[in-house]
Amino acid sequence: MSKPNYSRRAVLKAMGLGVLAAPIAGCSGPLTSLAPKAKQPNIVLIFVDDMGYGDIGCYGHPTIATPNIDRMAREGMKFTQFHVASSVCTPSRAGLLTGRLPIRSGLTRVLIPQSPGGMPDDEITIAELLKDAGYATACIGKWHVGSKPEHLPLNHGFDYYFGIPYSNDMSPGTQPDNPLFKDQPPTPLIRNFTVTNPDKEPDQRYLTKWYTEEASKFMKANAGKKPFFLYLAHTMPHVPLFASEKFRDKSLRGLYGDVVEELDWSCGQILETLKDLGIDDNTLVGFTSDNGPWLGKKLDGGSGGLFYEGKVSTWEGGYRVPAIFRWPGRIPRGVTNTDFATTMDLFATFARLGNANIPEDRIIDGGDISPILFGNGPGREALMFYYFGDELWAVRKGPWKIHVKTTSPASVSTWGEWPIEEHDPPLLFHVEHDPSEKHDVADKHPTIVRELLDVMEQHRRNLVAGEPQR
Ligand code: MG
Hints:
Layout: H1 8-14, E1 42-48, H2 67-74, E2 77-83, H3 89-98, H4 102-105, H5 126-132, E3 136-141, E4 160-163, E5 190-191, E6 194-195, H6 207-222, E7 228-233, H7 255-276, E8 283-289, H8 316-319, E9 323-326, E10 335-342, H9 345-353, H10 370-373, E11 383-388, E12 391-397, E13 400-407, E14 420-430, H11 446-462
Parallel strand pairs: 1-7, 1-8, 2-10, 3-4, 3-7
Antiparallel strand pairs: 2-9, 4-5, 5-6, 8-9, 11-12, 12-13, 13-14
Helix pairs in contact: 6-7
The structure holds magnesium ion.
């Protein structure tokens, strides 16, 4: 992993032939817009790992103190119907980065260190779009869409990378009894392509702090010179949990609270740095989580609030996450937004704000949500496909959601041993009246059940799935 493996696209780019300059059916010329460019904002996306909807003060947690994230919400917009692309790490990240359902890139399963698969070369990430539009780009933190050199961030649109390429529990040091990781190296902490710790585990107590320092350095290096896109994908609060001494044993919520409170401190540092650099008013900062809480970890896992279940499941607790966006002067202050939105929408939204061209040769599942962020346009109808691996298990259209299969991973501590139930007829919930999915009303609304089954069927029929990445 010490030197780059230049992919076809990286080589094309080095030759000045970016993917968007390639001919696309129906387009006779280059896609680069000749229109004068509006000022491109800096974009910072803080993406935490396995934090549930209910784990933040302003989302109702009674004993975790998150003053900085709460302040972000007061100074910006807080979403209550915001979803991820998948309820586990790898596909969730694939959906965020490509704006597409993970099934389209084939990234439907959690990758492990020995997985040869990763982000396919022909997928276009939001970092690639923004880089082509003139942005400096950095990925700091957990990547988890491929750990082989060709899949690492520098081959997918990022100028700089510092972090660990998969989860923090996938090494012999962190899971000594798991045969899956017996012959694997210590958790690699990578800078660009270089493993900084070939012989020993990184001291995970300092990951949040190190990522924050790296993020500040990157912002300082680019402020006033180039617009930047910072993807700060924290390793925490994924189990095993670690907090530095300053936060350890401080939270009323115990270790999980310590870890979230350190992440909150990190958010405060980011906001502080933006202010110090004088770029606060030209920076969009987003905060969200990659999936719901890992409930099988008991006290070490978070909370989905009033949503049922968590990570791995297709219940709302797995897919519904906290999401806050702040941009002083552009995003109205102190608004709670109940519009439906997803992490896949950030692809088109960031591209639009950054004057980047959205590729037209492929299906982009997300849409531009800037009208709702700026409070000057309507939201769109909710439409959400909930996958478990590569199987479609649930769909939401408008306020209605059906499940044809479900699992309850909170009940098991061993990864993969999920009890699965099939539902024929499907379960039906009105997720606005009944966000906890407690009251199945399928027998009262047979027409809606049929309509949603049709939506599922049509989606399955039209879907072109990507080569499975394992
Ligand atoms: Mg996760």
